[in-house]
Design brief:
alpha/beta; TIM Barrel; nine-stranded mixed beta sheet; 8 helices; globular
Length: 251
């Protein structure tokens, strides 16, 4: 499928923003953490189980300046009360595919408070090198963390650039496999056995019904496979879908 033609943001100046909101992180080792989510519009892939197609094609979006986006993130991160336990200091950049707009993300990170932790949820099929060079100091300090997919066969997409991107990752980054079935699980095991993955955390996330997929992968079934193999990974169901079942997006 060819991506729909949409207006393009000005690199480093504006972003195509699908939505920006505060919620609870439902994935990664930061699960449960209050987070400002910045969902950018458009994607380079078309996964059959995508649960945010409104940010991929056909959905509404705003073309806004980077300073305006920074102001919105600051507003969402602020708290009514002051003190060490108030306010949000985590920002999750997601999509779509956020790194299609990497120059604007890099600029926004530079304009936001230096103690913010930014997670970049990327599909693995965009070259990480340009963005990583732009935010190298933040990445080295742990203020920028990658949550990078390696696409499994069940997604309908093929992992290619992901294997080069693995070389850029550090121990605090995370690699994620989204699994539709046993074939995807076996694919993930093969990748783990074949490639040197420098991250401390490997996430195995079971697919939930969405888009073209009517039936997902039972988390208990995936858990039994992991335990049978004694696989050193982290089972990662999407916790936000248990907290707010049936809610597809932030309105």
């Amino acid at each position: 499928m060819e991506p729909a033609v949409v207006a393009r943001a000005k690199p480093g100046e504006t972003v195509l923003l699908s939505e920006c909101y505060a919620s609870i992180q439902g994935e990664s080792t930061l699960v449960g953490t209050p987070t400002v989510f910045v969902r950018l519009y458009t994607c380079n892939l078309r996964c059959v189980w995508c649960d945010s197609m409104y940010a991929v094609e056909g959905g509404e979006f705003r073309d806004i300046s980077v300073p305006d986006l920074v102001a919105e993130i600051r507003r969402l991160a602020s708290a009514r009360d002051s003190g060490g336990r108030y306010g949000i200091s985590h920002v999750c950049w997601t999509g779509g595919e956020p790194l299609l707009q990497w120059k604007s993300i890099a600029r926004a990170i530079g304009l936001l408070p230096g103690d913010f932790v930014h997670t970049i949820e990327t599909d693995g099929e965009v070259d990480l090198r340009p963005f990583n060079e732009a935010v190298r100091g933040y990445h080295d300090a742990g203020q920028v963390r990658y949550i990078m997919d390696v696409k499994c066969p069940g997604s309908g997409m093929k992992a290619t650039k992901a294997f080069e991107n693995l070389r850029i990752l550090d121990h605090m980054d995370e690699v994620k496999f989204v699994l539709l079935d046993r074939q995807d699980y076996d694919f993930a095991k093969e990748v783990l056995a074949t490639y040197a993955i420098p991250t401390d955390t490997i996430l195995l996330s079971p697919v939930t019904p969405a888009h073209e997929v009517a039936y997902g992968l039972d988390p208990a079934t995936l858990a039994s496979w992991i335990l049978e193999d004694r696989l050193d990974v982290r089972l990662q169901p999407q916790v936000h879908k248990f907290i707010w079942p049936g809610k597809e997006r932030e309105i």
